[in-house]
Protein backbone atom coordinates (compact mmCIF):
# COMPACT_ATOMS: atom_id res chain seq x y z
CA UNK A 1 0.00 0.00 0.00
CA UNK A 2 1.05 3.57 -0.72
CA UNK A 3 1.54 6.04 2.12
CA UNK A 4 0.09 9.53 1.77
CA UNK A 5 2.37 12.56 1.71
CA UNK A 6 1.76 15.22 4.38
CA UNK A 7 0.28 17.63 1.85
CA UNK A 8 -2.18 14.96 0.71
CA UNK A 9 -3.68 14.81 4.22
CA UNK A 10 -5.41 18.16 3.71
CA UNK A 11 -5.20 19.16 7.34
CA UNK A 12 -6.79 22.44 8.41
CA UNK A 13 -4.77 25.50 9.52
CA UNK A 14 -4.76 26.89 13.07
CA UNK A 15 -7.00 29.74 11.80
CA UNK A 16 -9.45 27.20 10.39
CA UNK A 17 -9.34 25.28 13.68
CA UNK A 18 -10.65 28.37 15.50
CA UNK A 19 -13.82 28.44 13.39
CA UNK A 20 -14.24 24.67 12.82
CA UNK A 21 -17.18 22.87 14.40
CA UNK A 22 -15.71 21.35 17.55
CA UNK A 23 -16.32 18.15 19.46
CA UNK A 24 -18.23 19.38 22.56
CA UNK A 25 -15.46 18.33 24.93
CA UNK A 26 -13.19 20.33 27.22
CA UNK A 27 -10.08 18.57 28.58
CA UNK A 28 -8.99 19.49 32.12
CA UNK A 29 -5.39 18.67 33.10
CA UNK A 30 -5.25 18.45 36.90
CA UNK A 31 -1.67 18.86 38.09
CA UNK A 32 0.11 17.08 35.24
CA UNK A 33 3.85 16.92 35.87
CA UNK A 34 5.30 15.76 32.57
CA UNK A 35 5.79 18.18 29.67
CA UNK A 36 5.61 15.16 27.42
CA UNK A 37 2.10 14.40 28.63
CA UNK A 38 0.99 18.03 28.34
CA UNK A 39 2.32 18.24 24.79
CA UNK A 40 0.68 14.96 23.81
CA UNK A 41 -2.62 16.17 25.29
CA UNK A 42 -2.52 19.18 22.94
CA UNK A 43 -1.62 17.07 19.94
CA UNK A 44 -4.42 14.57 20.64
CA UNK A 45 -6.98 17.30 21.46
CA UNK A 46 -6.13 18.92 18.11
CA UNK A 47 -6.73 15.65 16.24
CA UNK A 48 -10.21 15.26 17.74
CA UNK A 49 -11.18 18.95 17.45
CA UNK A 50 -11.60 19.45 21.18
CA UNK A 51 -13.06 22.85 22.23
CA UNK A 52 -10.48 23.78 24.83
CA UNK A 53 -7.88 22.57 27.31
CA UNK A 54 -7.88 23.88 30.87
CA UNK A 55 -4.52 23.63 32.64
CA UNK A 56 -4.66 23.63 36.43
CA UNK A 57 -2.34 23.45 39.43
CA UNK A 58 1.27 22.56 38.59
CA UNK A 59 0.46 21.84 34.92
CA UNK A 60 2.94 23.91 32.90
CA UNK A 61 1.72 26.44 30.33
CA UNK A 62 2.86 26.98 26.75
CA UNK A 63 5.01 28.33 25.29
CA UNK A 64 7.56 25.89 26.71
CA UNK A 65 10.31 24.13 24.78
CA UNK A 66 9.55 20.74 26.33
CA UNK A 67 5.81 20.98 25.65
CA UNK A 68 6.52 22.04 22.06
CA UNK A 69 8.63 18.90 21.46
CA UNK A 70 5.51 16.72 21.78
CA UNK A 71 2.73 19.18 20.89
CA UNK A 72 4.52 20.10 17.63
CA UNK A 73 2.49 23.28 17.23
CA UNK A 74 -0.88 22.06 18.51
CA UNK A 75 -0.68 24.72 21.24
CA UNK A 76 -1.35 27.19 18.38
CA UNK A 77 -4.60 25.53 17.33
CA UNK A 78 -6.30 24.24 20.50
CA UNK A 79 -7.52 27.10 22.75
CA UNK A 80 -6.30 26.81 26.33
CA UNK A 81 -6.54 28.63 29.60
CA UNK A 82 -4.90 28.30 33.02
CA UNK A 83 -6.92 28.20 36.26
CA UNK A 84 -4.84 27.63 39.35
CA UNK A 85 -7.44 25.83 41.46
CA UNK A 86 -8.79 22.70 39.76
CA UNK A 87 -12.04 22.83 41.77
CA UNK A 88 -12.65 26.39 40.58
CA UNK A 89 -12.27 25.20 36.99
CA UNK A 90 -14.75 22.35 37.63
CA UNK A 91 -17.36 24.63 39.17
CA UNK A 92 -17.05 27.16 36.34
CA UNK A 93 -17.59 24.36 33.80
CA UNK A 94 -20.61 23.03 35.68
CA UNK A 95 -22.14 26.53 35.68
CA UNK A 96 -21.77 26.48 31.89
CA UNK A 97 -23.68 23.16 31.79
CA UNK A 98 -20.72 20.90 31.16
CA UNK A 99 -21.04 17.44 32.64
CA UNK A 100 -17.70 16.98 34.35
CA UNK A 101 -16.29 13.45 34.39
CA UNK A 102 -13.02 12.36 35.97
CA UNK A 103 -11.08 9.64 34.18
CA UNK A 104 -10.12 7.56 37.18
CA UNK A 105 -10.41 4.20 38.88
CA UNK A 106 -13.12 4.75 41.46
CA UNK A 107 -15.94 3.08 43.29
CA UNK A 108 -19.01 3.24 41.06
CA UNK A 109 -17.15 4.46 37.96
CA UNK A 110 -18.63 3.78 34.53
CA UNK A 111 -16.51 1.52 32.36
CA UNK A 112 -15.71 3.35 29.13
CA UNK A 113 -17.29 0.70 26.88
CA UNK A 114 -20.54 1.03 28.83
CA UNK A 115 -20.62 4.82 28.60
CA UNK A 116 -23.14 6.42 26.27
CA UNK A 117 -22.82 10.20 26.10
CA UNK A 118 -26.00 12.27 26.21
CA UNK A 119 -26.65 15.26 24.01
CA UNK A 120 -24.70 18.08 25.64
CA UNK A 121 -21.19 19.13 26.59
CA UNK A 122 -18.58 17.19 28.53
CA UNK A 123 -15.48 18.12 30.47
CA UNK A 124 -13.00 15.29 31.06
CA UNK A 125 -10.53 15.56 33.93
CA UNK A 126 -7.18 13.77 33.75
CA UNK A 127 -5.05 13.70 36.89
CA UNK A 128 -1.46 13.66 38.05
CA UNK A 129 0.82 10.83 36.86
CA UNK A 130 1.29 9.46 40.39
CA UNK A 131 -1.60 10.74 42.51
CA UNK A 132 -4.34 10.66 39.87
CA UNK A 133 -7.25 13.12 39.96
CA UNK A 134 -7.12 15.01 43.27
CA UNK A 135 -9.58 14.08 46.03
CA UNK A 136 -11.17 17.54 46.14
CA UNK A 137 -11.89 17.30 42.42
CA UNK A 138 -13.31 13.78 42.86
CA UNK A 139 -15.80 15.22 45.32
CA UNK A 140 -17.13 17.72 42.78
CA UNK A 141 -17.29 15.77 39.52
CA UNK A 142 -20.57 14.54 38.08
CA UNK A 143 -19.22 11.07 37.44
CA UNK A 144 -16.22 8.96 36.70
CA UNK A 145 -15.09 7.07 33.60
CA UNK A 146 -12.71 4.14 33.84
CA UNK A 147 -10.76 2.37 31.10
CA UNK A 148 -11.05 -1.35 31.85
CA UNK A 149 -7.67 -3.09 32.05
CA UNK A 150 -6.99 -6.81 31.99
CA UNK A 151 -3.25 -6.94 32.63
CA UNK A 152 -0.81 -6.59 35.48
CA UNK A 153 -0.25 -2.81 35.68
CA UNK A 154 -2.63 -0.62 37.62
CA UNK A 155 -2.96 2.21 35.11
CA UNK A 156 -2.16 3.48 31.64
CA UNK A 157 0.08 6.39 30.74
CA UNK A 158 -1.86 9.71 30.89
CA UNK A 159 -1.22 10.51 27.23
CA UNK A 160 -2.52 7.08 26.25
CA UNK A 161 -5.61 7.45 28.47
CA UNK A 162 -6.39 10.84 26.92
CA UNK A 163 -6.12 9.31 23.44
CA UNK A 164 -8.38 6.36 24.25
CA UNK A 165 -11.08 8.42 25.98
CA UNK A 166 -11.13 11.23 23.39
CA UNK A 167 -11.30 8.72 20.55
CA UNK A 168 -14.02 6.68 22.20
CA UNK A 169 -16.26 9.59 23.17
CA UNK A 170 -15.78 11.61 20.02
CA UNK A 171 -16.80 8.52 18.01
CA UNK A 172 -19.90 8.05 20.14
CA UNK A 173 -20.80 11.76 19.83
CA UNK A 174 -20.70 11.50 16.03
CA UNK A 175 -24.15 9.97 16.21
CA UNK A 176 -25.55 13.30 17.36
CA UNK A 177 -23.94 15.34 14.61
CA UNK B 1 -16.45 9.88 44.24
CA UNK B 2 -13.97 7.61 46.00
CA UNK B 3 -10.80 6.48 44.20
CA UNK B 4 -9.80 2.82 44.42
CA UNK B 5 -6.54 1.83 46.07
CA UNK B 6 -4.06 -0.14 43.95
CA UNK B 7 -4.76 -3.35 45.87
CA UNK B 8 -8.49 -2.95 45.18
CA UNK B 9 -7.88 -3.11 41.43
CA UNK B 10 -7.21 -6.86 41.65
CA UNK B 11 -4.75 -6.86 38.78
CA UNK B 12 -3.27 -10.19 37.67
CA UNK B 13 0.37 -11.16 38.21
CA UNK B 14 2.92 -11.61 35.39
CA UNK B 15 2.60 -15.39 35.93
CA UNK B 16 -1.17 -15.14 35.53
CA UNK B 17 -0.69 -13.00 32.41
CA UNK B 18 1.20 -15.89 30.77
CA UNK B 19 -1.79 -18.23 31.10
CA UNK B 20 -4.60 -15.64 30.73
CA UNK B 21 -6.82 -15.72 27.67
CA UNK B 22 -5.31 -13.13 25.36
CA UNK B 23 -6.73 -10.66 22.88
CA UNK B 24 -5.73 -12.22 19.51
CA UNK B 25 -3.46 -9.33 18.60
CA UNK B 26 0.30 -9.12 18.05
CA UNK B 27 1.87 -5.64 18.04
CA UNK B 28 4.81 -5.08 15.68
CA UNK B 29 7.08 -2.10 16.39
CA UNK B 30 8.84 -1.19 13.15
CA UNK B 31 11.97 0.87 13.87
CA UNK B 32 10.67 2.83 16.89
CA UNK B 33 13.27 5.30 18.07
CA UNK B 34 11.93 6.52 21.41
CA UNK B 35 12.34 4.43 24.57
CA UNK B 36 9.31 6.27 25.89
CA UNK B 37 7.18 4.97 23.06
CA UNK B 38 8.54 1.42 23.41
CA UNK B 39 7.81 1.45 27.15
CA UNK B 40 4.31 2.84 26.64
CA UNK B 41 3.64 0.16 24.01
CA UNK B 42 4.41 -2.53 26.61
CA UNK B 43 2.27 -0.86 29.27
CA UNK B 44 -0.69 -0.49 26.89
CA UNK B 45 -0.30 -4.00 25.45
CA UNK B 46 -0.37 -5.33 29.02
CA UNK B 47 -3.64 -3.48 29.77
CA UNK B 48 -5.37 -5.02 26.76
CA UNK B 49 -3.90 -8.52 27.19
CA UNK B 50 -2.10 -8.53 23.87
CA UNK B 51 -0.47 -11.86 22.85
CA UNK B 52 2.96 -10.60 22.00
CA UNK B 53 5.09 -7.64 20.89
CA UNK B 54 7.58 -8.05 18.05
CA UNK B 55 10.41 -5.53 18.08
CA UNK B 56 12.12 -4.94 14.74
CA UNK B 57 14.94 -2.88 13.23
CA UNK B 58 16.31 -0.16 15.50
CA UNK B 59 13.61 -0.72 18.16
CA UNK B 60 15.49 -1.19 21.43
CA UNK B 61 15.02 -4.35 23.51
CA UNK B 62 14.35 -4.71 27.23
CA UNK B 63 15.86 -4.72 29.74
CA UNK B 64 16.69 -1.04 29.31
CA UNK B 65 16.48 1.64 31.98
CA UNK B 66 14.69 4.11 29.68
CA UNK B 67 12.13 1.54 28.55
CA UNK B 68 11.51 0.53 32.15
CA UNK B 69 10.68 4.13 33.12
CA UNK B 70 7.53 4.01 31.00
CA UNK B 71 6.80 0.28 30.88
CA UNK B 72 6.96 0.06 34.68
CA UNK B 73 7.38 -3.70 34.61
CA UNK B 74 5.09 -4.55 31.70
CA UNK B 75 8.11 -6.04 29.92
CA UNK B 76 7.83 -8.86 32.49
CA UNK B 77 4.23 -9.70 31.56
CA UNK B 78 3.88 -9.19 27.81
CA UNK B 79 5.88 -11.74 25.78
CA UNK B 80 8.19 -10.17 23.22
CA UNK B 81 10.69 -11.16 20.61
CA UNK B 82 13.17 -9.32 18.37
CA UNK B 83 13.36 -9.89 14.62
CA UNK B 84 15.82 -7.66 12.82
CA UNK B 85 14.06 -7.45 9.47
CA UNK B 86 10.49 -6.12 9.74
CA UNK B 87 9.46 -7.83 6.49
CA UNK B 88 10.65 -11.17 7.85
CA UNK B 89 8.45 -10.64 10.92
CA UNK B 90 5.45 -9.80 8.69
CA UNK B 91 5.91 -12.89 6.51
CA UNK B 92 6.27 -15.16 9.55
CA UNK B 93 3.04 -13.76 10.98
CA UNK B 94 1.19 -14.22 7.70
CA UNK B 95 2.35 -17.85 7.59
CA UNK B 96 0.73 -18.25 11.02
CA UNK B 97 -2.54 -16.84 9.63
CA UNK B 98 -2.31 -13.42 11.17
CA UNK B 99 -3.92 -10.65 9.14
CA UNK B 100 -1.23 -7.98 9.17
CA UNK B 101 -2.44 -4.38 9.19
CA UNK B 102 -0.25 -1.29 9.19
CA UNK B 103 -1.49 1.69 11.18
CA UNK B 104 -0.72 4.41 8.68
CA UNK B 105 -2.13 7.15 6.49
CA UNK B 106 -2.29 5.53 3.08
CA UNK B 107 -4.23 5.43 -0.12
CA UNK B 108 -7.19 3.08 0.39
CA UNK B 109 -6.71 2.72 4.15
CA UNK B 110 -9.70 1.76 6.29
CA UNK B 111 -10.73 4.44 8.77
CA UNK B 112 -10.67 2.92 12.25
CA UNK B 113 -14.34 3.64 12.98
CA UNK B 114 -15.30 1.76 9.80
CA UNK B 115 -13.17 -1.28 10.63
CA UNK B 116 -14.93 -4.44 11.71
CA UNK B 117 -12.52 -7.23 12.66
CA UNK B 118 -13.26 -10.72 11.43
CA UNK B 119 -12.92 -13.85 13.54
CA UNK B 120 -9.19 -14.57 13.55
CA UNK B 121 -5.85 -13.12 14.58
CA UNK B 122 -4.44 -9.69 13.80
CA UNK B 123 -0.97 -8.21 13.77
CA UNK B 124 -0.81 -4.42 13.94
CA UNK B 125 2.31 -2.64 12.68
CA UNK B 126 3.29 0.75 14.12
CA UNK B 127 6.10 2.63 12.42
CA UNK B 128 8.93 5.04 13.11
CA UNK B 129 8.12 8.41 14.72
CA UNK B 130 9.26 10.35 11.66
CA UNK B 131 9.21 7.99 8.68
CA UNK B 132 6.14 5.94 9.65
CA UNK B 133 5.80 2.29 8.63
CA UNK B 134 8.59 1.47 6.17
CA UNK B 135 7.77 1.20 2.47
CA UNK B 136 8.89 -2.42 2.22
CA UNK B 137 6.52 -3.33 5.04
CA UNK B 138 3.70 -1.37 3.38
CA UNK B 139 4.15 -3.57 0.31
CA UNK B 140 3.59 -6.74 2.30
CA UNK B 141 0.76 -5.90 4.70
CA UNK B 142 -2.77 -7.17 4.18
CA UNK B 143 -4.30 -3.75 4.77
CA UNK B 144 -4.01 -0.43 6.46
CA UNK B 145 -5.90 1.18 9.33
CA UNK B 146 -6.03 4.93 9.75
CA UNK B 147 -7.14 7.01 12.72
CA UNK B 148 -9.22 9.86 11.30
CA UNK B 149 -8.00 13.29 12.43
CA UNK B 150 -9.85 16.59 12.15
CA UNK B 151 -7.23 19.05 13.35
CA UNK B 152 -4.09 20.73 12.11
CA UNK B 153 -1.35 18.17 12.88
CA UNK B 154 -0.63 15.37 10.44
CA UNK B 155 -0.34 12.53 12.94
CA UNK B 156 -0.71 11.42 16.54
CA UNK B 157 2.06 10.34 18.89
CA UNK B 158 2.89 6.63 18.41
CA UNK B 159 2.02 5.74 22.02
CA UNK B 160 -1.34 7.46 21.64
CA UNK B 161 -2.03 5.70 18.33
CA UNK B 162 -1.22 2.33 19.89
CA UNK B 163 -3.63 3.07 22.74
CA UNK B 164 -6.48 4.13 20.46
CA UNK B 165 -6.13 1.21 18.05
CA UNK B 166 -5.69 -1.45 20.75
CA UNK B 167 -8.67 -0.10 22.70
CA UNK B 168 -10.86 0.13 19.61
CA UNK B 169 -10.09 -3.31 18.21
CA UNK B 170 -10.07 -5.15 21.52
CA UNK B 171 -13.54 -3.70 22.22
CA UNK B 172 -14.78 -4.83 18.83
CA UNK B 173 -13.28 -8.31 19.32
CA UNK B 174 -15.19 -8.71 22.60
CA UNK B 175 -18.25 -9.55 20.54
CA UNK B 176 -16.61 -12.79 19.46
CA UNK B 177 -15.66 -13.90 22.95
What features would you describe in this structure?
- Two copies of one chain form a homodimer.
- Chain A has 177 residues and is α/β, with parallel strands linked by helices.
- Chain A has a single domain, classed as SPOUT methyltransferase, trefoil knot domain (Alpha/beta knot, 3-Layer(aba) Sandwich).
- The first copy, chain A, is 32% helix and 21% strand.
- Chain A is built from six helices and seven strands.
- Chain A has helices spanning 14-19, 35-47, 65-71, 86-95, 135-138, 158-173; strands at residues 23-30, 50-56, 80-83, 98-103, 110-111, 121-127, 143-146.
- Chain A has a seven-stranded parallel beta sheet, sandwiched between helices.
- In chain A, strand 1, helix 2 and strand 2 form a beta-alpha-beta unit.
- The longest helix of chain A is centred in the C-terminal third of the chain and has 16 residues, at 158-173.
- The first copy, chain A, starts with 13 loop residues before the first helix and ends with a helix.
- Chains A and B meet through helix 1, helix 2 and helix 6 of A and helix 1, helix 2 and helix 6 of B.
For this entry, give a set of tags.
homodimer, 177 residues, alpha/beta, Alpha/beta knot, 7-stranded parallel sheet, 6 helices, globular
Question: In summary, what is this structure?
Answer:
The first copy, chain A, is of the alpha/beta class and 177 residues long.
Which pair has the most extensive contact? A-B, 66 and 66 residues
Distance between the termini of chain A: 32 Å
Strand content of chain A: 15-25%
The geometry of chain A reads as globular
Do you know the CATH architecture of chain A? 3-Layer(aba) Sandwich
The averaged pLDDT of chain A comes out at 96
